[in-house]
């Protein structure tokens, strides 16, 4: 016997809902999880939260029936969802305008009732963090800060395989760390008082580039183009990318000083921005970190797009005390 157990995992985002059958090896083994039979449906978030919940439940029932038909034994259902999640009640506490009516949805109760299986739900960023912590770049580091730098900036603190969620489920919101570089730039949370996300996410790098762009510098379509131009040595692109990454590094140092993680794992499209970005990130981190923390490894995530599904399954396995059915 391999000791592997199979879970049905869901990753609920603003544009699509992905599902896969995840086989988790024991955390102590060196084996990797396997994600099989991945299927996605569109979220169609503009139809409202009730509609999304109903179609999620239908999707889950269909997936479970398929597993039964194929003789795949499913231990439980792990869900990672967009929005702020209360894992204990299984309810979405808040969601952005991209998912109207998603807040207030009783997701785990609905899925548990329809499938007859135990269910555990975490936030999608938390799922990603647990996946990287237990089976990705954070493997072997008991306390880890996971940071996703893409369209926005999210994060999760994983301590011995479990999330530190805080009093309101909000812990780990790296993007809303204060930084002077963000003053005057509008954050996705609405503030212009200076958060890091509007100057260090993918869209933030592009906005920072445009906000200071001299007349003789060509506009840039996105952060990937800015990274390419920086790699080619264009001075203004190097300057902006360095400024942005350095500021993010300083924020990570602040979070590091608070929680003292054994490693910081970075994922998302912006981690592909090249050596200019990584060097400035590390410099900013070292400048802001307390002496004992300066050697904390800043690592690139390893699981890529599989991280949320693996993490949702791993979160189910990590919380035998919090399950709904
Ligand atoms: Zn903010």
Automatic annotation (TrEMBL):
<dbReference type="Pfam" id="PF00480">
    <property type="entry name" value="ROK"/>
</dbReference>
<protein>
    <submittedName>
        <fullName>ROK family protein</fullName>
    </submittedName>
</protein>
<dbReference type="InterPro" id="IPR043129">
    <property type="entry name" value="ATPase_NBD"/>
</dbReference>
<dbReference type="InterPro" id="IPR000600">
    <property type="entry name" value="ROK"/>
</dbReference>
<comment type="similarity">
    <text>Belongs to the ROK (NagC/XylR) family.</text>
</comment>
<dbReference type="InterPro" id="IPR049874">
    <property type="entry name" value="ROK_cs"/>
</dbReference>
